[in-house]
Each structure stands twice: as structure tokens, then as C-alpha cells.
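Quick one, T. Sequence first:
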Amino acid sequence: LSGVAFPGEKEVQEWEKEQEEARRRDHRRIGTDQELFFFNDVSPGSCFFLPKGAHIYNTLTDFIKSEYRRRGFSEVVTPTLYSTALWERSGHWEHYSENMFTVATEGSQRYALKPMNCPAHCVMFEQRVRSWRELPLRWADFGALHRNELSGALGGLTRVRRFCQDDAHIFCTPEQLEQEIVSCLEFIRSVYRVFGFSFHCLLSTRPTPCLGEPEQWDDAEQQLERGLQQFGERWELNPGDGAFYGPKIDVQIRDALGRQHQCATIQLDFQLPIRFQLQYVGSAPRMIAILAENYGGRWPLWLSPAQVSVVPVGAAVVQRFQEAGFMVDLNDDPGATLNKKIRWAQLAQYNYIFVVGDKERDGGSVNVRSRGGKQLGRRPTEEVLKDLMKLRDSRSNEEDF
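C-alpha cells:
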């Protein structure tokens, strides 16, 4: 049995209010209500993304890919299935095999679905002789990963068995390491700033057991600490929580309810060729869960799967905005009043409602309302399109334009 106690009635009421708000923002409820995703026992722990959910997923992935390119990363594509000989060589088979899905084949050869990309990127690095002039070499990988999580640990999008994450590796010299660490931390800060998340860093040090000599761990931990000090944001020590092959910086974000979430990781690995592993958003499904609860289903325009609802007429407006890449729907249901259509669009969390009657259609304009009920007035259609494209591309959380 477990319970919770409070010193007074006021604290009880505050806790109950927080619990109710958490239930209202639960990403599983939002996923069902907005038809974003679902799970099915035919593939436990693996998510089925419906069209609107796939829009969020792809928009989030496109955003991160563009940020990688800006920072000198090249995207690579690697296989999903590998001989267990690779995992034995890397050390993962000894320390992580219970979390891997294995595949039986004819003969004695065994294979496993990859739970991470580190060994594959090392195979790519060693496929030819590399010059120091090529370093730092930065590779990003968005392939599917599989981890055999216990069924009792599965929970919506926050803990799944099949997922994709923005997984990148940097091969660099020891002299380049500290600056690369700082650059990665600045990358993380710029990404989280877009979503409005505050964060703090944890320096996770050597666990027991671990690979490598104590001197190697000392040097690696000192490198990460110097990077954190140069970065300048708040951080704290997290003893014993590093990976078995090296220390890491864990980055925890705080959502709208004040809850902490672990998403980004920078790992220093000295067991394989000098490189370190980093992730910014982390698992895409997990980040979607956090964002759904952080926004309470009120997605900002650039991520929203329901950007514009047009009522009661306006097929030409719908076509024009769809051509510009917007998620827009026409509600021309003859059985519903205009007020009901507007109310439905607000409940469905469309960012904007365009009221288009005969007058607006003939005059090439739309009457704009926000989902919060604010009337932004009648404006020329092309002007609205231009302004919304600018707002979308800025990845702003603002609604007024």
C-alpha cells in the first residue's frame, strides 16, 4: 500500500487541483480526443500515429533535422537488424541484452534489433581510414529503435518499445571535446527555448559496475564538468547514474505543471573510438507526450494538427491554404448552425476559425477568430495567408498576427 499525507486542508485541496489538471492534460486523453494516436495489443508498446498525430510527428522531426543541418551535422541511415557479434564487440550484449529483441534464423547466427545507434556509427566510421582533418565528424540518425521494456513499465508515449529519436554522434579529438560539449549544450538550449521549456543539467558519474579504468572516468567527468561550467546554466551532480561505458550530462525539462522530464542526454564514450553521444529532443513519441500535456492539447500553430477551420463555405479558401501546407478543414455541414460550427472548432482546438459567407467569398476575404474566441476581424485572404505563413515559420507560440 502507498499513500500521501499533507499538513493541512489547504495543501490537500492544492494537491487535488493539481491531480485534476494532470488528468485533464494527460497525453493519452488528448491523443484520443484529437485523434492523434492509439495503441493496440497486436504490437504492444508500439504507437499507431493517425494522420493528425503523424503531422505533429513529422513537423517535430523536420524541425530537429533542420536544426542539425544548421549546426554542421550530416544525416545517415543505418540498418535495424545486426548480428549479436556487433553487440558483443561493443559491450552492449553483456550489459544490455535483456532489453534487446533477438531474432532466430537458420544456423547458429543470432541477430538483434538495435536499441541504439552507437555501434552502427562506429562501423561507419571505421569503414575507411579517417584523417584528423575530417574531425569533428558529426552524424545524425533518425532510424527506428526497439527496446524490450517490461509490459508493466509501458505507459502511453512516455515508455514504448518501438520509437525514433534524434540520435547523433560526434567523432572528435580530445582537444576539440570541450568546445563540442558546449556547442551541444547551446543546441539543447535553443531547441527548448522554442518550446518554452526551462531546464537544468545533471552530471551523471560512473555507475557500478562500469567499463574502463578509474583514470579514464576521472578525465571524462572533468571534461563534462568544464563544459557545464563554461555553458553557464544551473547544474548539479548526479553520482552513480552514468552509463556503463561513460559519464553523461542529463538535461531535465520542466513542463507547465512543474513536473520534471528527462529528455536530452550528452554521453561521453571512451570505450569505443573517441566520440560522444548526444540527443536533443530524445524519443519523438515521448516528446510528443510531454508537449501534449504541456500545451494541454492547445498546440501552437507550427505544430498544430488542426490549424484552420473554415465555416460555413469557402472551398477555394481551403484549397489555397492547403496548397501553402496548412492543416485546414471545411465544415459545411448543413445541419449545424454557424454558432455550433464555430463552437465545435474551438472545442477541437483549431488555432483559427475563418468565417466565410457570400460577402467574404465574393470580396476575397475571411473573418478571422482565434480558438480563444478573440475576433481578429475581416481581412484579405492573401494577407492572412502571408501573415500565418510568417507566424508558422517563426515557430512562435503567439496567436495574434
